[in-house]
Write a structure and sequence with these properties.
about 40% helix; single chain; 7 strands; alpha/beta
Length: about 190
C-alpha cells in the first residue's frame, strides 16, 4: 500500500526527491508503536525495490529517519520546516491516505502546512466522487489505488493470523514473522 502510494506520487508529481518519513513518536496514537528499529527495517525492506526503480527514472528516494531519531512528538510541520532548510525554494508535497486527510484539521499547524506544501490524497474505495474536507482545502487526488485496507487493518489481520501475503512485500512479511510482531497476546 505505502510503496504503491509512494511510487504513484513520485511518477504523477514528477518528483526529484521523495522522502519516506516513518513516524517517530506519534502524537495522534494512544497506544505504543512498534519499536522504531523494527519500523525502520520494515520501511527499508518495503521500499528497497522502489529506491532502485526510482533512481533509474531520475527520482531519489530517501529513508528519512529524522522523526524516528527524535524523542519529541512527530509533527509534519516540523519536518516540513527541516526540509525547507535542506531544499530552499523547492516545491513540497505532503502525501497522505484519505483516512489522514479526513482528520487533517487535527494536525498541528494544518493551515501553515497548506501554505508550505501541496496536499496529495490517495482515496479509499467507496469514497464520494467529490470528497472534501474543509480544513484540507484543495488537494491533488492521486490516480493510484484505491487502497481498501489501512496499515492498522493489516496489522490487525496479522495479529489474527490472517493471510496478508498479497498486501505486503514478502521481505516485510518474513521480517514480521521472524521478529514476532503484531501477534495478539490473550
Amino acid at each position: 500500500m505505502h510503496v504503491e502510494l509512494a511510487q504513484s506520487a513520485a511518477q504523477e508529481l514528477e518528483l526529484d526527491v521523495l522522502h519516506i518519513v516513518p513516524t517517530g513518536v506519534a502524537w495522534h496514537k494512544s497506544g505504543v508503536l512498534t519499536a522504531a528499529l523494527h519500523r525502520k527495517e520494515m520501511v527499508r525492506l518495503a521500499f528497497h525495490p522502489l529506491v532502485l526503480s526510482a533512481q533509474r527514472e531520475g527520482c531519489l528516494v530517501l529513508l528519512d529517519e529524522r522523526e524516528l531519531n527524535s524523542d519529541q512528538p512527530s509533527y509534519t510541520i516540523n519536518t516540513l520546516h527541516a526540509l525547507q532548510a535542506l531544499y530552499p525554494g523547492a516545491e513540497f508535497f505532503v502525501v497522505m491516505g484519505q483516512d489522514q486527510a479526513q482528520q487533517f484539521e487535527t494536525w498541528k499547524n494544518h493551515d501553515e502546512i497548506r501554505q508550505l506544501a501541496r496536499l496529495v490524497v490517495a482515496k479509499r474505495p467507496g469514497a464520494a466522487h467529490r470528497w472534501h474536507n474543509e480544513a484540507l482545502g484543495p488537494f491533488i487526488a492521486l490516480r493510484c489505488g484505491p487502497f481498501e485496507l489501512s496499515a492498522t487493518q493489516v496489522r490487525q489481520a496479522i495479529g489474527q493470523g490472517q493471510d496478508v501475503s498479497s498486501l505486503i512485500p514478502d521481505s516485510v512479511l518474513r521480517y514480521i514473522q521472524q521478529q514476532g510482531l503484531y501477534h495478539f497476546t490473550s
